[in-house]
Amino acid sequence: MRALLLLVPALAAAALVTRDADRDLKQKDPHWVEGRNTIVQMFEWKFSDIAAECERFLAPAGYAGVQTSPVNECPDMKNNNPSRPWWERYQPMSYKIVGRSGTEQEFADMVRRCNNVGVRIYIDVVFNHMTGNVQDPIGYGGDTADPQNKYYPAVPYTSENFHATCDIGSNYQDASVVRNCELTGLHDLDQSQPYVREKIIEFLNSLVSHGVAGFRVDAAKHMWPADLEYIYSQVDDLSTEFFPSNSRPFVYQEVIDHGGEPIHSYDYTSFGVSTEFKYGSMLSDCFKGNNDIHWLKNWGTGWGLLDSSSALAFIDNHDTQRDGDVLTYKTPKLYKMAVAFMLSWPYGITRITSSYAFTNRDVGPPADSDGNILDVTINSDNTCGNGWVCEHRWRQVSNMVGFRNTVAGTAVENWWDNGKQQIAFSRGNSGFMAFNDQYNTDFKETLQTGLPQGVYCDLASGSLYNGSCSGKSVTVNSDGTAYIEILDSEQDGFLAISSASKQS
């Protein structure tokens, strides 16, 4: 594109730049159906289970989208690692859609069924690298490769399509090393090569043709921004079967940036969204009591975070659950508070992690003795069985997705705090939140809620069901004030009411 601009008149060049900028901006649109919010990372779920969950729970609860695990063919690790670790999916052998989650036919069925109920699908795509030196790998589609010689005939890639072998190790102060060397021994593709770009674009176009809404780009930090910008620009518009004409794929990129390195998340935000890893670590630190939550009054860019429209916000993901110091399902009360704050605060494109139980870093999803992923079963209390945690189904989480839908477009008002670990605020005249994160202390205050007079059901302890509250209720007076109580002994450390939870 830059070479072409040298050959055209200035006016035409300006028009081309404008059109490119418009396309880049469109790549920040997640294409959510109106009245929906939040992506769920359904980590290691089968395609058939995702399709069923879109229909039976996600759409009715107001969720907007699903992020799948990588769908490309990867090695079946049973001969190399009988535990079938989750990270085998992040070692591509080909760009065929086949793996532990199902076949390409099952994938297409999932995308169609979820789109039909207004839930968008985003694919975790891996094209920074191929496999590491797996011994005699056989892919889930039956393909073979020679990783030691960087030969992947199912693409095909040869050694000429990769950067020279070098190890990143701990050298994250050199951007060239980070982007040209191997991440944990995974053979690093050279995305500057036209042939490599062509193969990646073909893969992304195959996903778009099935009706996906966009991509989570794995290891984007390890690729040059100019290469990524070009690749995205050549991907087809979204399918007009499910999206308006000229819709661009939503792109959100994994860029781990906690500061102190030469590569920054904002290096990638002119042509897509970046994952804001500081978001989860900072909020977790606050709700763990290491930093008072009263400081959250200016949460967002005031804390050095990305611009809201360029940020994918989350508390945890599959990596940070295992490697970081963020809150997870294993500390449920604090975790629910952090997620509730995320969903109640007007910042970013939000994502929830829906995981499975694990006891060590590498363990794969619940599976039978042959390595087949177990079905996600649903218990009578709406939770999941068979080893699946399903945080997205927790009442405190799914009700807060509904809260976020209700208060969309409103501002934070009526902030209150006790100077420590108790805060409260309203979202215009549509919702009110209170948090008690102060150890061994009760929250008992009469506060301005911003809401009209009436009785409201607390969305943390219960729901509004058939005109009654299944949990606590809050009475708002004619002047908008209400007595708010969150006892230290209660299961939940927050309270949420909204115009949609009004009983009378």
From TrEMBL:
<keyword id="KW-0106">Calcium</keyword>
<keyword id="KW-0326">Glycosidase</keyword>
<keyword id="KW-0378">Hydrolase</keyword>
<dbReference type="InterPro" id="IPR013780">
    <property type="entry name" value="Glyco_hydro_b"/>
</dbReference>
<dbReference type="InterPro" id="IPR006047">
    <property type="entry name" value="GH13_cat_dom"/>
</dbReference>
<dbReference type="GO" id="GO:0004556">
    <property type="term" value="F:alpha-amylase activity"/>
</dbReference>
<dbReference type="GO" id="GO:0005975">
    <property type="term" value="P:carbohydrate metabolic process"/>
</dbReference>
<protein>
    <recommendedName>
        <fullName>Alpha-amylase</fullName>
        <ecNumber>3.2.1.1</ecNumber>
    </recommendedName>
</protein>
<dbReference type="InterPro" id="IPR031319">
    <property type="entry name" value="A-amylase_C"/>
</dbReference>
<keyword id="KW-1015">Disulfide bond</keyword>
<dbReference type="GO" id="GO:0046872">
    <property type="term" value="F:metal ion binding"/>
</dbReference>
<dbReference type="Pfam" id="PF00128">
    <property type="entry name" value="Alpha-amylase"/>
</dbReference>
<keyword id="KW-0119">Carbohydrate metabolism</keyword>
<comment type="similarity">
    <text>Belongs to the glycosyl hydrolase 13 family.</text>
</comment>
<dbReference type="InterPro" id="IPR006048">
    <property type="entry name" value="A-amylase/branching_C"/>
</dbReference>
<feature type="domain" description="Glycosyl hydrolase family 13 catalytic">
    <location>
        <begin position="37"/>
        <end position="404"/>
    </location>
</feature>
<dbReference type="Pfam" id="PF02806">
    <property type="entry name" value="Alpha-amylase_C"/>
</dbReference>
<comment type="subunit">
    <text>Monomer.</text>
</comment>
<dbReference type="InterPro" id="IPR017853">
    <property type="entry name" value="GH"/>
</dbReference>
<keyword id="KW-0732">Signal</keyword>
<keyword id="KW-0868">Chloride</keyword>
<feature type="signal peptide">
    <location>
        <begin position="1"/>
        <end position="15"/>
    </location>
</feature>
<dbReference type="InterPro" id="IPR006046">
    <property type="entry name" value="Alpha_amylase"/>
</dbReference>
<feature type="domain" description="Alpha-amylase C-terminal">
    <location>
        <begin position="413"/>
        <end position="502"/>
    </location>
</feature>
<keyword id="KW-0479">Metal-binding</keyword>
